[in-house]
Sequence to fold (666 residues):
Amino acid sequence: MQTVIFKNPPVITFSSSVAGPKESEGELSHFFDYKLKDDMYGEKTFEKAEAKIMYSAIDILLSKSKIKEDKIGLILAGDLLNQIISSTFAVRNFNCPYLGIYNACSTFTEALLVGSLFIDRRYKDNIICATSSHFSSAERQYRYPLELGSVRPPLSQWTVTGAGACMLNVKGEGPKITMSTVGKIVDFGVKDANNMGGAMAPACADTLLTFFKETKLEVDDFDLIITGDLGVFGTRVFKDLMWEKGYDVSGNHVDCGELVFNINEKEYQGGSGAGCSSLVFCSFFMELFKKKKLNRVILIATGALLSSLSALQGESIPSIAHLVCIENMEGKK
Amino acid sequence: MQTVIFKNPPVITFSSSVAGPKESEGELSHFFDYKLKDDMYGEKTFEKAEAKIMYSAIDILLSKSKIKEDKIGLILAGDLLNQIISSTFAVRNFNCPYLGIYNACSTFTEALLVGSLFIDRRYKDNIICATSSHFSSAERQYRYPLELGSVRPPLSQWTVTGAGACMLNVKGEGPKITMSTVGKIVDFGVKDANNMGGAMAPACADTLLTFFKETKLEVDDFDLIITGDLGVFGTRVFKDLMWEKGYDVSGNHVDCGELVFNINEKEYQGGSGAGCSSLVFCSFFMELFKKKKLNRVILIATGALLSSLSALQGESIPSIAHLVCIENMEGKK
Fold:
C-alpha cells in the first residue's frame, strides 16, 4: 500500500500566503495575504528575497493563528534552491524544531504527509508546513542568467514567486487531511528541461491511479482533483494518461499552475515551482473550504527531480507526485 | 517537547555500506560490505558515481534482507548534491515509494526519525533509509574544482565517499530506535565554509542538552554518544559546550568523522558528509550491536545548512542536529 489512511486526521486550522508582483496581478489576487510590489522585497539578492518571502508566510501564519513561536511543534519546509537555503534562512529566524524536505514541486504535499504523521500519533501539535519559490532565483539557477534575455520556449512554465504555509493541528476548525499516497519516481525519458509539465504528468497519473486502486474511490467522489503545476500541456498529457486507464478527470480537474496567472498572460503554460501549489492552496482553496464551497478534494503536487547539472550530464527528468486527500469532516464522525 | 518517544519502536534489521577507496584503507575497512577501488565506480562523472554508490548500498541491503523490491514500503534518502540528485538517480532504479529529505549531514538521522514514524504507526513496513556523499562531487560543488589543486586549510574536513543504508521493520532481530529529538537551527555566526565542525558543534550540543533535559537521562545512561561528523576541532568545541552546561561527555563520545579514516591520515580533522554517519553506523556500529558489545547509544548527525551561493552572499552557516536513541531491547519488555 502506497496510501496511508490517517487514524486521527490532522486539521488544517490556518494558512497564509505571500505572492510576488506578477502573481498579485492574477485572478487569485484578492485571496493572498501579502502582495509584493517588488520581487526583491527589499533584499540585495533574489535568493535572500525568497527566504524573506517564506519567512513572511510563516510570520503571518503565526499572527493569524495566535500561536506563539515556542508552542510550534515543528516546521517542515522545502524549496527549489540548492541545499534548500530559502527554507534554512527563513526558519533560522524562528526558534523551532525543523526538518528540511525536498521533492522539487511536490515538496508541499510531502510536508503535509510528514506533518500529518506527527499529528496523527499525537507526538506533536502546531506543525507548520511551508514551501516557496521565486522566478528569478530559479531561473538563474536552473536555466540562464536573466540578463541574457533568453527567449522562452513554448512549453516553458513561469516559476511562481511566492510562498504558502499552513498550520496542522490535533484539533480545531478546518478541513482535515484524511489520506495520503506516497509517490514513486516515474521517468518517461523526457530530457527537455523546459518541458516540466510533460515530464511530471506520468508521475501524477501513476500516483492518482494508485490512490484510486488502493482506496476503491472514484473521480466523482471528489469535488476537485487539484494538481500542483502541470501547466497547460502537462495537464493535457495527464488527462490523456488517465483517460487511457479508464478515468475521465476532465470534469473536475484544476491545476494550480493554470490558476495562478491571468488567462491572457504570456506564460501560456502557466506557473510552476515549489511555491505554486502552496501559494494557491493556502489562499484560494483554503478560502473555498472555509466557505464550505469545497468538501473533499485531492491535492497532488508534482515534482521534477532534475538539477541543472543532471540535465547538463544528459540525464532525463525523473518525476514524482505525492497526493493528499483533504476533506471537511463536519456531519461525519 | 522536541523529543519523540516511540510507542512501537522500529527495529533496524539490516544495514549495508559501500565505501570509497580512501575510506576502505581506514581502520573500519573490514566492516564495509563493498569497497571501491576507484572513486569513479565505472561512471563518467563523480555525480553519477555517487548515485551508483547509493544504488549499490540499497541493492546490497535488499540482498542481505532478502526482501523483494515490491515489498519495500518506502525509501527515505538524501545527499549533499544540488536537488539531492544522488538520491533521485539511485532510487529511480527501484519501483518503490520515495520521500526525499535534506538537512545536510544530519539527513541520516532525519531519515531514521521519519521512517520510525511510519513504522511506529504501522502504516508501512520494510522502510529503507539511505544517505551518501562523495568527496569529489562535494568538493567541486561546494569549494573548488579539484584540478585547481587548492591547498586545504587546517580546519577542513574530508568529505566521505560512501553510502550507508538500513532497513527499518515492525518486527525482527536488531537494535531498536526508541527515541528521537528533532533539532532546531543554531547559528553562532561562523562564516568559514572550511570550518564546518566549528559551525555544527553548537547545534549538536543544543540538541543533546534538549534530549537530556526532556528525558531526564544522563551521559552515563549510554554506552556511547556518537556524533556524525564534527571532526577533531568540532568535537573539541562540542565537548567544551557540554562541559559548560555541566555534562562531561569526554568518557564515552566518539565521532564518525574521527573514526572513518586512519589515525595517521593527512586529513587531520577527519571525515564529513551525509555519507559519513550512515557509512560508519551501518557498518561498524551495527556490527557492535549485533555482537552485543553495544546496548544503548545516542546517534546525533550534524548538518551545516549552507550552499556555495549562501556562502558567497556573505551568509553564516546555520546548523542543525537530529538525534536518535538506539538500543538493544532484549531482556526488556
